[in-house]
Automatic annotation (TrEMBL):
<feature type="compositionally biased region" description="Basic and acidic residues">
    <location>
        <begin position="95"/>
        <end position="104"/>
    </location>
</feature>
<protein>
    <recommendedName>
        <fullName>Lipoprotein</fullName>
    </recommendedName>
</protein>
<feature type="region of interest" description="Disordered">
    <location>
        <begin position="80"/>
        <end position="104"/>
    </location>
</feature>
Amino acid sequence: MVAVFLLAGCSDPGPGVAQEVRRGVPDGLVVEPLSEGPVATWVDPGETFAIVTWGSGSCPPVATALTADGPDRVDLTFGPSPNDPCTADMSPTTHEFEMPDEISRSPVTVSITYEDWPETDVLTLE
């Protein structure tokens, strides 16, 4: 019974604002293993984008807020995973998002903040 609970806990990315969360990187995206920070890429240009994060494969961060901040800027907040225990690996996780309707210009700046980390990452979707 405990093993079933642990498996279910590790497979669920938890609540969040991402449309989809999956292990790995989007098809066609080449990233350096263990890159320093997240990577942004278009899935469907102008409509859907993805953020690739690195961390525990069983406890990826959860996107908790996505807002438009002008016609060409998106603010995204990640919180800690609700899963526990977590594996001690460094795996990529892809988080896909629908672009807010208020975004009407390109390139789009994506500003990422973290609920449990005092850094901000700023990425660009070309």
